[in-house]
Design goal:
about 290 residues; alpha/beta; Rossmann fold; 11 strands; about 35% helix; Epimerase_deHydtase; Lipid_A_modif_metabolic_enz; NAD(P)-bd_dom_sf; NAD(P)-dependent oxidoreductase
Length: about 290
């Protein structure tokens, strides 16, 4: 298929472009960063610069596409003013799905976020109702990032009501790659109390890219939402024991797929997308959370 990938110069977008191209798709990479005017390497996907909060530019990059993977976003609410995060992320998503509907794109993969339920960046902190968290967990966002991602999922719902487009929203956990495992996950491996809001969950960017390819190629009707996280937790902790130790009985413990389970369940992605992650923190870190020699 002819696939447009937005946010193509970001951590997720780069991996998605590569995986989709390797899967045989014709990829157009889109980002707000300026292109480099050099002769391209053979096989390099076409690149187009665009500011997607501008509707005209969103339409321009979508013309001729059969599928869109929308990964472009300010990636968290902490480094920009709230109104900037909300306006950028929501309007870019609105413009891209609007363009996709109007131009007859058949498939749209919306990169949402694990933060949608609201317990990652709240001004009034609260804990998940239960763990592992799944797609049925109540949604209570407070911050501009999670709110924009939640509204983005609602835009997908609206799109399938008014057109024949198929939409999938992926909620990745904390995305890791070979350059940041030690910095990000090392503390959680060494100290179980460093659980984070995601309850020791994470996802390798290349496993996420595999999920994006499956979502792009999926023929599931309507709009489906999937969490994407590694099946194990960072540190390989006994999840039940760790949850009790850190949070007592304040979070309901639900059945686990394995003793060292993630704080996020991806059973739905396994079942409906056929997604099977291949990578673990153990490929990059030793049992003390330090980088392995590669």
């Amino acid at each position: 298929m002819r696939v447009v990938v937005t946010g193509a110069h970001g951590k997720v977008g780069r991996a998605a472009v590569k995986a989709l191209a390797e899967a045989g798709h014709e990829v157009t990479a889109v980002d707000v960063t300026r292109p480099v005017f050099e002769r391209s390497e053979p096989g390099t996907p076409r690149y187009q610069q665009a500011e997607l909060t501008d509707a005209g530019q969103a339409y321009a990059v979508t013309v001729g596409a059969q599928a869109v993977v929308h990964a472009a976003a300010i990636p968290d609410p902490t480094s920009n003013p709230p109104h900037v995060v909300f306006q950028n992320n929501l309007m870019a998503t609105f413009n891209m799905i609007e363009a996709a509907v109007r131009l007859g794109v058949s498939r749209f993969v919306n990169i949402s976020s694990e933060t949608v339920p609201g317990f990652f960046f709240p001004e009034r902190p609260f804990l998940p109702d239960y763990a592992p968290v799944d797609e049925e967990h109540p949604i209570r966002p407070q911050d501009p990032y999670a709110l924009a991602k939640h509204f983005g999922e609602q835009l997908m719902d609206a799109a399938v009501r008014r057109s024949d487009i198929r939409c999938i929203s992926l909620r990745p956990s904390w995305v890791q790659w070979e350059g940041n495992y030690e910095r990000n996950l090392g503390p959680q491996v060494r100290d179980v109390s460093e659980s984070g809001a995601g309850l020791w969950s994470y996802i390798d960017v290349y496993d996420l890219a595999d999920a994006i390819v499956l979502a792009t190629e999926s023929r599931l009707p309507g709009h489906e939402v999937f969490y994407i996280a590694s099946p194990d937790n960072a540190g390989g902790h006994d999840f039940a024991e760790a949850l009790r130790r850190v949070h007592g009985d304040r979070i309901e413990l639900r059945p686990l797929a394995r003793p060292d389970a993630s704080g996020i369940s991806c059973a739905k992605a396994h079942r409906l997308l056929g997604w099977q992650p291949k990578r673990s923190w153990r490929d990059y870190l030793d049992e003390n959370g330090h980088a392995r020699e590669r």
